[in-house]
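Example complex used in Figure S2.
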Amino acid sequence: SQQGEEDPQALSIQEGENATMNCSYKTSINNLQWYRQNSGRGLVHLILIRSNEREKHSGRLRVTLDTSKKSSSLLITASRAADTASYFCATVNTGGFKTIFGAGTRLFVKA
Amino acid sequence: NAGVTQTPKFQVLKTGQSMTLQCAQDMNHEYMSWYRQDPGMGLRLIHYSVGAGITDQGEVPNGYNVSRSTTEDFPLRLLSAAPSQTSVYFCASSYSKPQGARYNEQFFGPGTRLTVL
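Predicted assembly (228 residues):
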């Protein structure tokens, strides 16, 4: 079964608004990553947060991690039409080499 | 650098046929992996390799074989294709194991769309 579960499954917002996506997981992790996938393309890495970190920023992206709740959130501020894509969280378990992906959140940003 | 390349881009097979999906990277990455992505789902790990000569199974290995004779190449073999293997296949690579201190991100290829009739 997949480790990460994203919420919501789909999100539609206006350009300029913020978009928040959540990810929950089941077991202890070494790190958690967020990826973006444009339609019909491969995945592109956005940001990685390690289990001993609580928050990380990269440009318009902000990721938080709560290991006690086994959850993470990705915030995209001031969204643009070009942010329209699917966003996936991926977890790497402690003691393993496998990266496990969730089912993703489809984000649609209306111009 | 070409990054991660995959061939072919599209393939149609008949049930029972075999084929090899090619994956190559020119970044001297230690870690390589194969995923499949079905409609509306995330990626599921098929096989992975932590270096030349070393491979291991992921979440959904049945029906697939891999080998890693060089650092650059990581082919995926479908032994006897079944309609359930219709999917988009992605190859990815990274500098080190996902837990490693140097680990940063996986680089993905453009994918191979496979249809099994």
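Chain B has a mean pLDDT of 92. The CA atoms of residues 94 and 105 of chain B lie 6 Å apart.
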